[in-house]
Amino acid sequence: MRFLIFGAGAVGTWIGANLVMARQAVTFVGRMPFAQAACAQGIHVMLPGGETWRLRDVDVATDLAGALRRSSLAYDAVLLCMKAYALDRAIDELRSCADTLSNALFITFQNGVGSEEKLATVFGERRVLAATLTSPIAVEGPAAVRLERWGGGVGLAALWADRLWQPVAHALSRAPLLGLKVYADWRAMKWSKLLLNIMGNATSALLSAPVAEIYHNRRLFALEMRMLREALRVMAAHAPPIAAVNLPGHPARFLALALKLLPDSALRALLSRRVAQGRGNKYPSLYYDVAARSGRSEVNVLNGAVAEIGRKLGVPTPVNAALTELVQQAIQPGSVLLPQVARRALEQLARV
């Protein structure tokens, strides 16, 4: 099959490299540094055991229109691998090339919720597949990525119950390290990934502290648990209710059950160990948004989505709303929201 990777960052490079290894036809659309490096030295993928894939003669382009002009053959699927805040611009580009992509499926790898609805509004539900990636991928340089540890994989779910998407799923299942798992309920899959994404994310970004340190602090940990329980209440209020499901390498269903049944003292002992094993002293994604102060962040599709959908459903979400507001302040160019100020705001919120 023919795949177009739209957004050749860490996620797109990893997914595309796996498809190349499975002998699928793949075109990468990425920025100029990626294209130059991929053309000069190929794509490099480093694995935990010391093995390195070196993929030569890969097909790369720096813009969507250019990639489509070069090929007389139709693409079967476009994998959207850019950040959620870049999706609107990507949809505009896709819309301008709609005739060329008239038979392609669109697969959304964005974090958070809302991407699938945006694509479905433009191209129809039958052509959209929701996807998640739980494998930890790090960028080592232009056209070079590293799988940080074994485990994780790709989740895939169709928005519409037909068989149009099954050949694409079969091709993805043949990729050596994607570990594809297909889900019946795309909302359950995406919201389960949201639960994992928001753990320690905004708090760590605001305080410039690793997640393990956040979870070691009793008050901040309690605030984190309130945040997660708010998300679960929003999921339960949805019609129909959204149930958490286990994702490749990550027991999100067990997390949801533990949040409902266990006190914070037991959760802290349980989750602190898992976070230390999973992240160690690494920082989550929103930390880099705050550090860049570019005005762009995925917080709106994570904590912000919980708060906004909660508002529409009549579910109070004060912690998620406050975290969203603080991160939105912190990412602005020239922001003076210091970690000390954010800590006081969070500690005050924890006392409410």
From TrEMBL:
Key word Transferase present in the record? no
**A Gene Ontology molecular function term of the record:** NADP binding
Do you know which InterPro entries this protein is assigned to?
A: 6-PGluconate_DH-like_C_sf (IPR008927), 6PGD_dom2 (IPR013328), ApbA (IPR003710), Ketopantoate_reductase (IPR050838), KPA_reductase (IPR013752), KPR_N (IPR013332), NAD(P)-bd_dom_sf (IPR036291)
Please provide, in alphabetical order, the Gene Ontology terms of the cellular component aspect for this entry. Answer: cytoplasm
Q: Which domain of life is it from?
A: Bacteria
Q: Which family does it belong to?
A: Belongs to the ketopantoate reductase family.
Q: What is this protein called?
A: 2-dehydropantoate 2-reductase
